[in-house]
Specification:
165 residues; Aminopeptidase; globular
């Protein structure tokens, strides 16, 4: 059964006019992560900084920003880039930086559709290995990525050098 037959859904490259919607979607992700661990709490000006970051990623050769639209309204996005790890045989890799689907639209296959579109872009760029980071506390996110075949490659660790916030 195709989960997209019930509603009009499209995935396309993001454009400048999507920036407000992308910030709103990222806000959902930022709030979710901030509740997971103090290390993920955004700073006061994060929205403007992030807006400029994502603007710089639009239309690039080595990066992509995709929007998932339902009836013309952005309900999810993903951004990714090509990275180079020069010490490894498989040094040219894809890196998925963010993927978020607005809460009311989750569990409909939109995240998978965005991921498949990223895979297609990575293949066009001759990338064979894709990696990402997911918060250890983010059990929903970890399960999503594991269901798509991702497996742990490295464990990122952190230590506060002063009192935790």
């Amino acid at each position: 059964m195709n989960p997209f037959t019930e509603f009009p859904l499209a995935v396309r490259p993001a454009a400048e006019e999507d920036l407000d919607a992308l910030v709103a979607l990222m806000r959902e992700l930022a709030e979710y992560h901030a509740a997971l661990h103090p290390a993920f709490e955004p700073h006061e000006e994060w929205e403007e900084v992030w807006r400029e970051y994502i603007r710089s990623q639009l239309g690039g050769e080595e990066q992509i920003v995709l929007v998932a639209e339902w009836e013309g309204k952005p309900v999810g996005f993903a951004n990714a880039s090509i990275i180079v790890r020069p010490a490894f045989k498989e040094g040219r890799r894809g890196s998925i930086h963010n993927l978020v689907v607005s809460e009311p639209f989750r569990r409909r296959g939109i995240g998978r559709l965005l991921t498949e579109a990223l895979y297609e872009w990575f293949r066009e760029k001759s990338v064979r290995l894709v990696e990402l980071e997911v918060a250890v506390q983010n059990t929903l996110g970890r399960r999503f990525w594991e269901e798509l075949g991702f497996e742990p490659l490295m464990l990122q660790m952190g230590k506060w050098l002063s009192d935790k916030p």
